[in-house]
Amino acid sequence: MDLDLDIEAPWPPAADWADLAERAAEAVAEVAPELANQRLTASLLFTSDAEVHRLNREWRAKDKPTNVLSFPMLERDELLDLAPDGPPELLGDISLACETCTREAEEKGLSLEELAAHLIVHGLLHLAGLDHEISPEDATAMEALEIKALALMGIADPYGDANDATGA
């Protein structure tokens, strides 16, 4: 894998969160080649609702927890112009909230690992400068990349029956 992930995973050890994150990063790099640059690093925090609530309030002025937050450090044009050689570049940070993700997985009839994989892919695409909130066309394009990346991981289309519940 080219994208280097710094993973902090205090979630219950029911799954190998680091392995899941690495597989999600590999899959998303297949569908969004700009993320395959070996210079890129990103941090991924598997944390609590309380921590994500604090981050959401502080950085997005939204006083509630959400399932995933992403904090890009590069503009999309900077990412697309990034040469393959040079020093490491921080792509950004992603935080996932355990309690919200657990509840959403149960509501959707998914395993926590499946939902987390989707949210990691979703968050990485946000770090790449994609945004589903810009327009319906942007949402459709981002969802298509998510579906392709998740299919590479053997995970079904998360948009088959319901709307996206991501808060990133």
UniProtKB/TrEMBL annotation:
Single strand-specific metallo-endoribonuclease involved in late-stage 70S ribosome quality control and in maturation of the 3' terminus of the 16S rRNA. The lineage of its organism: Bacteria, Pseudomonadati, Pseudomonadota, Alphaproteobacteria, Sphingomonadales. Keywords: Cytoplasm, Endonuclease, Hydrolase, Metal-binding, Nuclease, Ribosome biogenesis, rRNA processing, Zinc. Pfam families: YbeY. It is found in: Cytoplasm. Belongs to the endoribonuclease YbeY family. Its EC number is 3.1.-.-. It comes from Novosphingobium anseongense. This is Endoribonuclease YbeY. Binds 1 zinc ion. Zn(2+) binds at residues 122, 126, 132.
